[in-house]
Design goal:
Glucose Oxidase, domain 1; Transcription Elongation Factor S-II, Chain A; 3 domains; alpha/beta; about 40% helix; 4-stranded parallel beta sheet; 9-stranded mixed beta sheet; Aminopeptidase; single chain; about 750 residues; globular
Length: about 750
């Protein structure tokens, strides 16, 4: 019924917009007709059965970094591209990759328990019993450690959770903490625990989040069973991703490497993920205060914060080995502009079999590339070069893409028009994040792809679900375009946009494929065909979406960058920051007033010994005027450029020069010195949050300084951002001067 209601809403959106002439940004009317015909032919070559076959083949065995299965998957992809006529090579890097040598978790004292630390094979899952090839349950980049201490429950392990513990009078220094998966990237949990003096960190999946509280568990249903464990990296990627020993430099054989102790993105405490089967006795043994309402999970007992009388012993050691990474790079040279590149990527490594993450996305990308090879046999050639990249080492820390981007940085900044990323794929609604100068362009793509479940465009289906789930119904009803998200981290777009300034997208489908298989042995072909995308049709839909994105960028006469869209977006971020600062000032003043009132109320009681009120520093008035003025200048510069480009008759000689200037514009938003305390990230508009990991922080230098109440730094970062935007506006004016 819910899907039916969404279909009706989406259909209403379609009817409201019917009768409009389809235009195609960057194409003349005649060229657009040709393009639409080519896209229909491209669609006709795509087959769900091929997506099915690729997923089954590539997820047949575990294929983590440096494994025989990983080599087999890389060879499979390379041979597919060869058979389709692409110019293909395997580019190999050499990176640090730790794997478990010893894992022990036990409890002693008032209660005893030894954790299983193992996921059992299931008869319903054909590949779950491949124990000799599977990586055991672990968090990659945990430190070696042997620690014994009392245990404290820290909810999701976020900074605000430790604030709550402080208010409860509980200190985690010298203790081991246990945190739930969720609400942030997993690497933030041990990072914050380490900052608070914890000796070790345990992370578990609570059944309230993705287990029996949500639905039937695997294999009966899609949700996490009591033994399922989420493996995953805990590298401090907000500092820098990639090989920890070669920051900023490609990890070739000859690369100069850091000593491991000098890598600033590695933890110093042991970290271990466990199932809720193993978590239950540990949590049940806790005493101390009852956990606050929002902290309680779905296990059948009262949650306490701890500590208790029992002691927990955590012992971990790892093989810190160098392993080869195999990136597959396949090219279809451009017929007119071979030195302008459209780059399309999806990783191929997995923690275990990885049918959903990443093979579903990789299979869609392979079918997309095959369809282009079929189209090429009919006489079509892309004007610009298409480059397909199957990345290795994404799971441990975006290593394959980062090392390739760092190695080829100078050439990429000259030639790369855009990078189009995907990862795991599912069933449901379009997810699109990316560079906002291409937001109108991706709306046109979404307008022209049909959702296979409802028969209307994926754009209107996305707008419909946003309307159903959103609060401001009146505003959402009037909305006719998709607002794409900003890029944080968590997949292979990060080195392209945030380190070297290449316009980027991250595309995928999901929302109707819930499950608890993520990074476990149950992320298998059997799970995928039952619960994720049984018909494999959304693999075709992803291929249609990313394929149109790549093809239109490859063949556009004038590249479809719209900097008025980017200008509006950045102005919106600045407005948010000013409102947030005002709100923070009001909240702080109110908190301090309450503290003072309590202080004076107690002042007349001779039995109470008073200290000075622990008031928070008042929020000063930050001067945003320079940023506001430069944003107005940017708005005017973007409008002038847009008007100039809208005029017909851009001469062919100037078109090449203008297009190159357009796709290199994103690089003007990079800062030479990078973000404070993490200079690898150089984009002044988008960055992963220092304490969110995957989650994005927009205008990150300013925003995080305000969040951390560093007012001097916040004012300095306002001026830094204003300077970058001023430079960007001047650059757009220089592009306008190129237009006759």
């Amino acid at each position: 019924m819910r899907r039916y209601a969404l279909s009706l809403l989406a259909l209403a959106c379609t009817l409201a917009s019917s009768g409009q002439t389809r235009t195609l940004s960057g194409f003349s009317e005649a060229a657009a007709r040709t393009q639409f015909a080519l896209e229909e032919k491209f669609d006709s070559y795509l087959k769900a059965s091929n997506v099915d076959h690729h997923i089954k083949e590539m997820s047949a065995r575990p294929h983590h970094v440096g494994s025989p299965g990983g080599q087999a998957v890389a060879d499979y992809i390379l041979n597919q591209f060869k058979s389709w006529g692409y110019q293909v090579e395997m580019e190999t890097f050499y990176v640090l990759f730790p794997t478990p040598k010893e894992r022990l978790l036990e409890m002693s004292g008032a209660a005893t328990y030894k954790a299983l630390l193992k996921e059992p094979a299931l008869k319903e899952d054909a590949t779950s019993g491949q124990f000799s090839e599977q990586l055991p349950t672990y968090n990659c980049w945990s430190a070696d450690g042997d620690v014994t201490a009392s245990l404290v429950y820290v909810n999701y392990g976020l900074p605000e959770d430790y604030d709550m513990l402080d208010r409860m009078g509980i200190d985690v220094k010298g203790k081991i903490v246990i945190a739930k998966y969720g609400r942030s990237w997993r690497g933030i949990k041990p990072k914050v625990a380490q900052e608070h003096g914890a000796l070790g960190c345990i992370i578990y999946s609570d059944p309230m989040d993705d287990g029996y509280f949500q639905g039937d568990v695997y294999p009966k249903g899609a949700f996490k069973n009591e033994y399922g464990v989420q493996r995953g990296s805990v590298m401090d990627m907000p500092i820098y991703p990639g090989d920890p020993l070669t920051p900023g430099t490609g990890a070739t054989k000859e690369a100069v490497r850091l000593d491991r102790k000098d890598a600033t993105n590695l933890l110093h405490i042991p970290v271990l993920p466990i199932s809720y089967h193993d978590a239950e006795p540990l949590l049940r043994a806790l005493e101390g205060p009852v956990a606050p309402d929002g902290w309680r999970g779905a296990l059948p007992f009262t949650y306490h914060v701890g500590p208790g009388k029992a002691q927990v012993h955590l012992k971990l050691s790892f093989n810190w080995d160098m392993k080869p990474l195999h990136d597959i790079i396949a090219r279809m040279p451009g017929s007119e502009l071979p030195d302008e590149w459209i780059i399309r990527g999806n990783h191929h490594d997995a923690w275990v079999n990885g049918a959903g993450d990443p093979i579903s996305g990789q299979a869609a990308m392979l079918e997309e590339a095959r369809a282009f090879s079929e189209l090429a046999r009919t006489g079509w050639k892309p004007k610009r070069t298409l480059i397909y990249c199957a990345w290795d080492g994404e799971e441990p820390g975006l290593m394959g893409s980062t090392e390739w981007a760092e190695t080829h940085e100078a050439e990429l900044q000259q030639k790369a028009v855009a990078y189009i990323n995907s990862d795991g794929n599912g069933r449901g609604f379009l997810g699109a994040e990316g560079s906002h100068a291409l937001e109108p362009f991706i709306n046109e793509v979404a307008r022209d792809v049909i959702d296979p479940e409802t028969g209307i465009s994926v754009l209107n289906r996305r707008l419909a679900v946003d309307l159903v789930n959103g609060k401001n119904k009146k505003e959402l009803l009037a909305k006719k375009t998709l607002s794409i998200g900003a890029l944080g981290s968590g997949s292979d777009f990060s080195p392209f946009i945030q380190h070297i300034g290449i316009p980027s997208f991250n595309l995928g489908y999901g929302g109707e494929d819930p499950g608890g298989e993520y990074h476990s042995i149950y992320d298998s072909y059997d799970d995928y065909r039952r619960f994720k995308d049984p018909s494999f049709i959304y693999g075709v839909t992803l291929a249609q979406t990313a394929g149109r994105t790549a093809m239109r960028l490859a063949d556009a006469e004038l590249l479809p960058f719209d900097f008025t869209s980017l200008s509006r977006t950045i102005s919106g971020y600045a407005t948010e920051l000013m409102a947030f600062t005002d709100q923070l000032r009001d909240v702080t003043a109110l908190e301090n007033q309450v503290i003072r009132e309590k202080y004076y109320a107690l002042a007349g009681d001779p039995t109470v010994r008073l200290l000075a009120p622990p008031a928070r520093q008042e929020v000063p008035y930050l001067n945003f005027s320079d940023l506001q003025n430069t944003l107005l200048s940017l708005q005017q510069s973007a409008a002038r450029l847009s008007a100039a480009l809208a005029k017909p008759g851009l001469a062919a000689g100037r078109q090449l020069q203008v297009n190159q200037a357009l796709y290199r514009a994103e690089q003007q938003l990079l800062t030479r010195q990078g973000l404070l305390r993490r200079g690898w990230y150089r984009h002044s508009i988008y960055a992963p949050g220092f304490y969110t990991g995957y989650g994005v922080k927009t205008l990150p230098g300013i925003r995080e300084a305000i969040e951390q109440r560093n007012w001097k730094e916040a004012q300095e970062q306002i001026e830094v951002a204003a300077g970058v935007i001023r430079q960007f506006a001047a650059y757009l004016d220089s592009v306008t001067q190129l237009v006759p």
